[in-house]
Amino acid sequence: MAGGEERARHWRYEELPGVDLLRARYVEKRFVRHTHEEFVIAAISSGVEVFHHGGSDQYAGSGALALVNPDTPHTGRAGVPEGWRYGAVYPSPDLVADIAAETTALRGTPGFVSPVLHDPYAAGLVHEVLRAAEEGNPLAADTLLRVAVTRLLRRNGGSLPRRTVRTAGARLAARARAVLEERMAEPPSLDRLAAELGTGPFALLRAFREAYGMPPHTWLTDARVRAARRLLDAGVPPAEAAVAVGFTDQPHLGRHFTRIVGVPPGAYRRERKNVQDSGPRAS
Question: Are residues 92 and 50 in contact, defined by beta-carbon separation less than 8 angstroms?
Fold first, then answer.
């Protein structure tokens, strides 16, 4: 990844089931507003990443970690001309909850309090997890991941607020989301969706933004990419996955997929296929 070249590898290691792994160096890359079903634990090794989170820009430089809870809208871009280089792990909410229950006193749903934490030691642990996965060392990869998550929860952990639908606006947004999930491939227009729900388009737009941090069309693109990832994980070719989730064709999927995941769907699928083809590996 020398010079100005942008490169990224997004993969899974069969001995860390359900945990996505990433190594990347970006310069011009700009992640659009999106969410993850998993936690994001990104360790910056050089440069600066800027990401919009919680209403303001956050800056993570060398030795810091960018920490994003599941279903939290955020963006990402370079904060300096030379870009940023980082390694990231994406553990599932269930795994983080299990680690929190075993190693911390946190109650309720665990999560991170601050989106940026300067902790070179924890950042180093994340890079060691990736190195162990690349070297095929399952004992080290699993151990280091759990140690890293425990440290981060003890230093920067808290209980996430429960998401309860109390207001009429929140209930309206939830109903709209359910419609979009059900009709992902052929969604209605904003005007038609609002009419189906018995409200006006601007009232629906305001309610949806307040509930989910983005307008319905942005949320739908994010949801389509999530659905496409699940299909690619299951072995579906990118062209078929694109049409199944509502994109016009593979290039249409590719544009949005790369802007959210960081790698093209073909490269993403090849890494999954490599894991499936390799089978269990001895340590």
Answer: no
Quote the pTM value.
0.91
Report how far residue 51's alpha carbon sits from residue 31's, in angstroms, rounded to the nearest whole number. 9
Q: Which CATH number fits domain 168-274: 3.30.420.140, 1.10.10.60, 1.10.10.10, 1.10.20.10?
A: 1.10.10.60
The answer to whether residue 155 scores a pLDDT higher than 80 is yes
Characterise 87 by phi-psi region: left (phi > 0), alpha (psi -120 to 50), beta (else): beta
Lowest mean pLDDT among 110-124, 190-204, 207-221, 268-282: 268-282
In sequence order, what DSSP letters do the residues of 217-283 get, joined into one string? HHHHHHHHHHHHHHHHHTT--HHHHHHHHT-SSHHHHHHHHHHHHSS-HHHHHHHHHHHHHH-----
CB 245, CB 227: distance < 8 Å: yes
Tokens 């680690």 identify what position?
99
Residues 6+ apart with CB under 8 A from 3: none
Q: Give domain 7-160's CATH number out of 3.40.710.10, 3.30.1490.20, 2.60.120.280, 3.40.50.300.
A: 2.60.120.280
- Judge contact between 43 and 86, C-beta under 8 A: yes
pLDDT in tens, 52-87: 999 999 999 999 999 999 999 999 999 999 999 999
Q: Comparing 111-115, 167-171, 220-224, which segment has the lowest mean pLDDT?
A: 167-171
Task: From 123, 86, 63, 70, select the one nearest 9 (Cα to Cα).
Answer: 86
Contacts of 26 (CB under 8 A, 6+ apart): 6, 8, 78, 83, 84, 262
> Bridge partners of 10?
22
**Residues in Cβ contact with 143 at an 8 Å cutoff, skipping those fewer than 6 apart:** none
